[in-house]
């Protein structure tokens, strides 16, 4: 049986995963840029703490969905480099999850910021 790695190594590996996604995935860069922009406007429009909480939960949801999408894409590319209908389903469903969270984030952004313009 493989020896369990230390907590420190596990955390380091998790940060490597985040770093990989942020530096290699174009869509992740877009989501991070959008999140930072939303963060700036939350300061600009002086959102209250509950509005900021909703914004943070929304941003985290999009980032996590994108990371899970990257996991699925990577695994599918490893397991099924040839085209396969099941590989297509896996990738399309993962991409659909990102689309749902990203669309929801636009709705949240509209509701939080539009009334303050
Ligand atoms: N092995 C495969 N078998 C069948 N269809 C595939 C396969 N790989 C990719 N596809 C199809 O092509 C689409 C794009 O896949 P791809 O791996 O290029 O993702 P991507 O466009 O790079 O995604 P992202 O932009 O999020 O990185 C998938 O959503 C799927 O419909």
From TrEMBL:
Keywords on record: ATP-binding, Cell membrane, Kinase, Lipid biosynthesis, Lipid metabolism, Magnesium, Membrane, Metal-binding, Nucleotide-binding, Phospholipid biosynthesis, Phospholipid metabolism, Transferase, Transmembrane, Transmembrane helix
Transmembrane segments: 30-46, 52-72, 93-113
Residues the record marks as active site: 66 (proton acceptor)
Membrane-protein topology: Multi-pass membrane protein
UniProt xrefs under InterPro entries: DAGK (IPR000829), DAGK_sf (IPR036945), UDPK (IPR033717)
Family: Belongs to the bacterial diacylglycerol kinase family.
Name of the protein: Diacylglycerol kinase
Native organism: Pelosinus fermentans B4
